[in-house]
Design a protein that fits this description.
Keywords: Membrane, Transmembrane, Transmembrane helix. The chain contains 8 helices and 2 strands; from the N terminus they run ααααααααββ. A two-stranded antiparallel ribbon has the order 1-2. A hairpin with a 5-residue loop joins β1 and β2. It is globular and about 55 Å long. The C terminus is likely disordered.
């Protein structure tokens, strides 16, 4: 049964804008598989794949771009932003879990109740990256794609990466917070500013591609399109949060090794404050 009042008070508490969390071991394993080694393998393989994709994107992109492509226009494309972030974050994922596995047995055993600083940074970057990957996929298929033949590059960039993010959100045990929506929205706002600067300098898509993001013609169109992107980032985050809730419901019903009780964090004042809200909204009042 859902206790919606308790959920609203706890999940939407201002402290959840930050990245404090009582169970850092949730960032080094799957939701229903406790093997850290399997998780290391998962992270390492994808880190190698995305680094390889980034190298291809940056070094041999001339094979799938027009002859008049200008390389300093790289940052006019949100796709390129996500390619870099995907490689960076997947590498950070692998480094963090290997570091914890080798040097932090207390976290591996579930005995440490604070978030290491590097795990907090990784959580922030993952939140932004997952959102942007899905947002770029939506932008491409809704605004950019005009019915032409779909290349393998487009399938991987605007399909494969989104599938990875979705599966990752469903099978790993990392939490997702509603209030973290502000971080991908800030990142998209930064892209919108870059978009405007390139437009002012007459650099945006000037001969780089027969296609361009809609709105790169007038100031009004630029602002309205960028606003759609920012709002879209919020919608995508709600989608990811929905996947998180589905994951918890499935795990609570099917994973025998999954924790299903409610956790409390004692304070020095002898009062208690709930820090972990994974199952708050799944319990009866």
């Amino acid at each position: 049964m859902c206790n919606c009042k308790r959920f609203a008070l706890e999940e939407l508490h201002p402290r959840n804008f930050l990245f404090d969390y009582l169970y850092p071991e949730d960032f080094i394993r799957f939701q229903c598989i406790q093997s850290v080694f399997t998780y290391i393998l998962w992270r390492s393989v994808w880190a190698i794949c995305f680094i390889f994709m980034l190298i291809l994107n940056g070094t041999i992109s001339d094979y799938w771009t027009p002859p008049n492509y200008i390389h300093y226009q790289w940052f006019t494309y949100l796709t390129h932003w996500t390619s870099f972030l995907l490689a960076f974050v997947s590498t950070m994922d692998a480094i963090c879990v290997i570091q914890i596995y080798l040097h932090r047995p207390d976290i591996v055993k579930g005995e440490f109740r604070q978030m290491p600083w590097y795990v907090k940074i990784n959580w922030l970057c993952t939140t932004i990256n997952s959102n942007l990957v899905l947002l770029v996929t939506l932008i491409h298929w809704i605004f950019v794609y005009k019915g032409e033949r779909v290349s393998i590059f487009a399938v991987v960039t605007y399909g494969g990466t989104a599938l990875y993010v979705t599966i990752n959100a469903l099978i790993t045990s990392s939490p997702i917070r509603i209030l973290h929506v502000v971080y991908p929205m800030v990142m998209v706002t930064m892209y919108a500013v870059t978009n405007f600067v390139y437009q002012e300098a007459n650099l945006a898509n000037s001969g780089a591609s027969p296609k361009s993001y809609p709105g790169w013609r007038t100031y009004k169109d630029i602002l309205s399109t960028d606003l759609v992107f920012v709002v879209g980032a919020g919608v995508v985050h709600m989608y990811l949060y929905t996947l998180y809730v589905i994951r918890l419901l499935v795990a609570r019903a099917w994973c025998t090794n999954n924790r299903t009780f409610i956790y409390w964090q004692p304070l020095e004042s002898c009062n208690t404050i709930r820090q972990d809200v994974r199952y708050t909204y799944l319990t009866a009042s």
